[in-house]
Amino acid sequence: MGARTLSKKVDSTKTMLAWFKAKGLKPFKFQKDTWDAYRHGMSGLIHASTGTGKTYAIWPAALMESLDQYTPEQLAGYGRGGRVKRPMLPLTVIWLTPLRALANDLALSLNAPVEDLDLPFVIETRTGDTAASTRTRQKERLPYGLITTPESLSILLSYPGNEEKFSQVKLVVVDEWHELLGSKRGVQAELALARLRRLSPTMKTWGLSATIGNLDMALAALVGDNPEALERATIISGSESKLVVAESVLPERLENLPWTGHTGLPMIDEVIDQVAASGTSIVFTNTRSQTEQWYLQMLERHEDFCGQAALHHGSLDIGVRRWVEEALKNEKLKFVVSTSSLDLGVDFSPVDQVLQVGSPKGVARAMQRAGRSGHSPGKVSKLFLVPCHALELVELCAARLAMDMGLVESRSPHNKPIDVLCQHVTTIALGSGFREEELFAEVRETSAYKNLTRDEWRWVLNFVGTGGAALAAYPEYHRIKDEDGRFVISDKALALRHRLSIGTIVSDQSVDVCFTSGERIGQVEESFIARLKKGDRFVFAGRFLEFIDVRDMKARVRLSPVKSGLVPRWMGGRLPLSSELASVVRKLISDAAFGVYDEPEMAFVKPLLNLQAERSALPELGELLIEYLHSREGHHLFVYPFEGRLVNEGLANLVAFKLSQVSPSTFSIAVNDWGFEILSGQPIDLDGQAIARVFQALDGDNIAEDIRQCLNAGEMARRKFREIARVAGLIFQGYPGGSKTVKQVQVSSGLLFDVFADFDPGNLLVRQAHDEVLENNLEISRLKGALSRINTAKIVEVQAKRATPFSLPLMVDRLRGKLSSEKLAQRVLKMKMDLARDMHI
Fold first, then answer.
1. CA angle (460 as vertex; 456, 461 as ends), nearest 5
2. pLDDT per residue over 160-213, tens digit each?
3. For 333-381, what is each residue's pLDDT tens digit?
4. Distance set, CA 247 to CA 46, 382, 403, 740 (Å)
5. Burial level of 665, CB count in 10 A (0-12/13-18/19+)?
6. What torsion, rounded to 10 degrees, do the Cα atoms 763, 769, 774, 776 define?
7. Could you report the per-residue pLDDT of 626-647, keeping only the tens digit for each?
8. Which H or E run contains 559?
9. What residue spans of 200-287 are helical by DSSP H?
10. CA distances (Å), origin 628, targets 262, 675, 683, 713, 830
């Protein structure tokens, strides 16, 4: 569309509708509802399926507001850069995204109507990938629309004079709010939003979310958890439902699937056939190691894919990832193998189908990944679920049914993370400073800190100002100081260190992997590189590499002529089965107990479930299955709560702890999403009723203390404190190019933990470490709910004569760390043959 005639009065709504029409689009009802709510001064949360147009629900509202604010003559006086030097409109819209990789794609979407309508609205990005020259310029002058991350926004708030720069902000959009909510990055965003509302009181806040269960809680965390803010906020749900077609990929025969395992590679031929028969595909895996394996194996099996395939995960160089994203959008690739790095936001309209290797473990994750295909309004999203082992078909069936039922997991915000608050206080002091009471009131407007007490607030100020009781003698921990009632930071070295440390994403130290020419390939964790010696081979970025040496925290490599090698393992545990998915799994197993196998996945795995019923039992709803087995290894106790890995781990350790009090013994424990195993060299002298009493004894107010005793929670808290200390600013990772090693960080954080435990027993960061272990590592809230359900269940006891289909994966997991790969494979094959004989397959 051409430039408008300046003499005419602009009808902003008519202008925007004309733009939609010119693009061949018609606004959906939820988009128009958003425009209307925004025009009436409302904030809100837009909840709609992936690919239904959430971006153009809120962005046109901001543009229309600006068109209503300025006359055509006034707009003509502003520029968008270029040769003609004209003043720029002030910062008006901030668009927060959880992934900096989404920033460029978002900029294209936001710029489309701006350029078509010839508006003088400058849109820029500011992330860790933004050029240094651009970031320097933005310190002085910010654009009309700024696309940024929570970390980069906090950095901007740390510069003096930010009050004036942010004073005319009309709108903050938080994209993919479901991804931030429930994480410390979400808390960081909450605090930044509270600050912006103080600087621009009329500012409106809108969140975009595709997959979330607890909408009311999500809205409160977004706009501020207080009656006044919630009265001016609304939830808008897109009525335009997204059609998702999901089905499981089945092998020719059940015996083609292993009984345990998580790579999924036995299904590679079926996946290759599915990819070859379609246009463009994304093959999602659950880990980076799995991504590397699948990419290489698919190319090895199907050479015609060479030059048409790529892989994508967060450890690859940003340049590589951007090339893959562009090639995928421009239909230059047949398929991409990826982790969650392609889960969010980027518009891949050409993608015809998505394949998920392994259980997605959560309904929201399955829906999010499905939405990467058919990522446009009216298009169908196609999801193919690929099992890694036989019983996983039950989980895939559960995921498919849960999506049809609309079950979506909730995300609960963090409650008063003191480390994030310490960082934020330092950031605001570094900016223009703050007064104690004013910032206290501001912080308490957030959902995360609405229950922050005055004593806790004063502890934070004292800790950031003096280092607290244990560190008061060390000047480097005296970060803020009170100057005439205003807390500030004046030390330039301290300021630099803090800005380099802003953020809540904590991971083990990574090492750049580079060719001898200097070309950067990506990053792997230092702990992996430390195990390599010169000449060792490993697989990374889809290439076989030979390790040369480490120089200046860079691992130098060359291409290896030998096509084999180790696959790096990145830190991070397996995803636990969500409560929503677990409930559907229990229902499917219960249906099978009554002989109901209506779903194709269940019918396919029926021989294995029938064998489970023959050798043991299939628990019905309201039942808890317990199996006993005596083998040459000892006495086994198997319990199947079907509550997810973390909850089952907590239950296993609690039961073992109680057993040891009755009869002191040494136990081995194995855990998966369906249940747990306790192995003892001595007979386990407990029947079902006694075990039920153990669970009942745990279902009380002392469960947290029981966990601390049985799990050595002090050591777990020490490890958790390593992350907390970094976020709180107690440990400086080092300047670029001179970062500390993982071992140095471990020593520093461990020393601080011990000092606080001995000399500052009321330290809130230590308390936070213990609380996070209980909630994040062991899901204590979910554990309590599981115990309530279990304690009303009927106990079904079975004295098994041989391993059952349910128990075999647990036994294999326990043996995995004790036997060599060859010996483990032999044991698994023997157990599988034993099962297969009884299934007659």
1. 120
2. 989 999 999 999 999 999 989 989 999 999 999 999 999 999 999 999 987 788
3. 999 999 888 877 556 567 899 999 999 999 989 988 988 888 666 678 8
4. 28, 8, 11, 47
5. middle
6. 140
7. 999 999 889 999 999 999 998 9
8. strand 554-559
9. 215-223, 227-231, 268-276
10. 26, 13, 10, 29, 20
Q: State the pLDDT at residue 129.
A: 76
Starting at the edge strand found earlier in the chain, the sheet holding 667-671 runs: 667-671, 676-680, 634-640, 623-631, 794-800
* Model confidence at 246: pLDDT above 60: yes
Q: How confident is the model at residue 509 (pLDDT cuts 50, 70, 90)?
A: low
Q: Walk across the sheet containing 233-237 and list its strands.
A: 123-126, 145-148, 93-96, 171-174, 204-209, 43-47, 233-237
Ramachandran region, residue 468 (left: φ > 0; alpha: ψ -120 to 50; beta: rest): left
d(CA 814, CA 830): 16
* Owner of token pair 């020490």: 718
What average pLDDT does the chain have?
87
More confident residue, 93 or 822: 93
Half-sphere exposure of 224 (CA within 13 A, CB side): 26
User: Which two three-digit tokens encode residue 409?
Assistant: 């997991």
- Contact call for residues 831 and 657 (beta carbons, < 8 A): no
Which amino acid is located at 120 in the chain?
P
Taking the model in full, what pTM does it have?
0.86
**Partner residues linked to 313 by β-bridges:** none
Q: Provide the pairing of β-strand 244-248 with 233-237.
A: unpaired
Q: How many CB atoms lie within 10 A of CB 776?
A: 12
Contacts of 232 (CB under 8 A, 6+ apart): 41, 42, 43, 223
Distinct helix (H) and strand (E) counts, the chain:
35, 25
Q: How many residues does the chain have?
A: 841
What is the end-to-end Cα distance of the chain in Å, rounded? Answer: 67
751 Ramachandran zone, left/alpha/beta (phi>0; psi -120 to 50): alpha
Residues 410-423 pLDDT 10s: 888 889 999 999 99
433 and 486 Cβ atoms separated by less than 8 Å: yes
CA gap 246, 385 in Å, rounded: 7
pLDDT tens for each residue of 138-173: 888 899 999 999 999 999 999 998 999 999 999 999
Q: Over range 599-604, report the average pLDDT.
A: 97
Helix axes 55-69, 29-39, angle to 10 degrees: 40
The distance of Cα 40 from the centroid of its chain, to the nearest Å, equals 34
